[in-house]
Design brief:
By secondary structure, the protein is mostly helical. It has seven helices and no strands. It starts with 5 loop residues before the first helix and ends with a helix.
């Protein structure tokens, strides 16, 4: 496939999703994403598709879930992750959620403001 051509990865992954969604995730993960600060909305689409598939399959421990949540949150905003945040909260994935909020805000999980927020959310 042609590197950096979003459509090629998207079309191949869409063919795989109905029969082998994990293979579709692998195709999307092969796309050479730019650093988060330089990502475009097209890049965010690929990240969002990875998240959609992983969350649908309930693969909450998948190694790509946390970094993709953070990247998507930085590009699109936390509001776009609200549905996933609620699902993860209901599944008691508090460590993942704390890392997500810290990563999106470029802060440590031990940051005073974040610790107050985590207490409010009952994640501590």
């Amino acid at each position: 496939m042609a590197p950096e051509v979003h459509d090629a990865y998207i079309e191949l992954a869409q063919l795989l999703v109905p029969t082998d969604p994990q293979a579709a995730v692998e195709v999307y993960c092969r796309f050479p994403l730019k650093p988060v600060a330089e990502q475009t909305f097209d890049d965010a689409f690929i990240t969002g598709e990875i998240l959609r598939i992983l969350m649908k399959l309930e693969l909450y421990e998948h190694p790509q879930l946390e970094p993709k949540l953070i990247a998507y949150g930085k590009v699109m905003g936390l509001g776009c992750l609200e549905k996933y945040i609620n699902i993860l909260d209901a599944k008691f994935k508090t460590k993942l959620l704390k890392n997500l909020y810290a990563g999106v805000h470029n802060k440590s999980v031990n940051d005073k403001e974040l610790q107050d927020f985590f207490k409010f959310k009952c994640w501590i």
